[in-house]
Design a protein that fits this description.
Oligomer: single chain
Number of strands: 15
Order of helices and strands: HEHEHEEEHEEHEEEEHEEEE
Structural class: alpha/beta
Bound molecules: D-4-phosphoerythronic acid
Largest sheet: 6 strands, mixed
Helix content: 25-40%
Radius of gyration: 18 Å
Shape: globular
């Protein structure tokens, strides 16, 4: 099975948790995309009725619109029944790294407002603990003096050999790479650690104390269910 086929299997399994009348958090990324497609299909077939979607990105908003999924937002629905979203890393405690697709702020807001948050991954996302993979730990920062904020983030994790890099996007304006801009008009500084960052809650709090930081990609104690699709089948783990 290809990675995308595994993602689709996990996504479709998660959609089995969706009941008519639910207000749903709609995730962002290639795995969540399959879940949103499936919800649209079941609505079209009349197997699901009266669901409302709250998207976690402009991209998911567009996808849901194209599928005819009725949409709303957190202002109108401050409490949601269920969110379904992917993740970049999942550890044994169901802590997540998210945001390598750049949507972490709206994802964290929506998923933090849900009674249940179902994470859907293929087995390649499983890690022994988050922050140890050496891959990007995204931090959304305001564009104002982002270098100042990036330096303070780097200094926070000096003893983990932290490297802080501004995320850029492919478009070039007179050959100069441009910063990636989030749906909220902010930048993303990706942190790369050479060593384990230790207590995640302490790391999270220290990042959020920096005034120029908006949010980071550690989703601690938020997931209520993790669905993992692997070569040997699908496993469902509950908190
Ligand atoms: O950016 C995000 O948070 C995405 O949900 C990401 O974590 C998972 O994206 P994928 O399903 O394309 O791997």
């Amino acid at each position: 099975l290809t990675q995308d086929e595994l993602k689709k299997i996990a996504a479709y399994k998660a959609v089995e948790f969706v009941e008519s009348g639910m207000v749903l958090g709609l995730g962002t990324g290639s795995t969540a995309c399959h879940a949103v497609d499936r919800i649209g299909e079941l609505l079209r077939q009349g197997k699901l009725k009266n669901v409302i979607g709250v998207p976690t990105s402009k991209k998911t908003h567009e996808q849901a619109l194209s599928l005819g999924i009725p949409l709303s937002d957190l202002d109108s629905h401050p409490v949601l029944d269920l969110a379904i979203d992917g993740a970049d890393e999942v550890d044994t405690e169901m802590n997540l790294v998210k945001g390598r697709g750049g949507s972490l702020l709206r994802e964290k807001m929506v998923e933090g407002a849900c009674k249940k948050f179902v994470v859907i991954v293929d087995e390649s996302k499983l890690v022994p603990y988050i922050g140890g993979s050496g891959l990007a730990m995204p931090v959304e920062v305001v564009p104002f003096c982002w270098k100042f904020t990036a330096k303070r983030l780097k200094d926070l994790f000096e003893d983990c050999g932290c490297v802080a890099k501004l995320r850029t996007c492919c478009e070039k304006i007179n050959k100069k790479e441009q910063p990636f801009v989030t749906d909220n008009g902010n930048y993303i500084v990706d942190l790369y650690f050479k060593k384990d960052i230790g207590d995640l809650k302490i790391a999270s709090d220290s990042i959020l104390r920096l005034a120029g930081v908006v949010e980071h990609g550690m989703f601690l104690d938020m997931a209520t269910t993790v669905i993992v699709a692997g070569e040997l089948g699908v496993t469902i783990k509950n908190k």
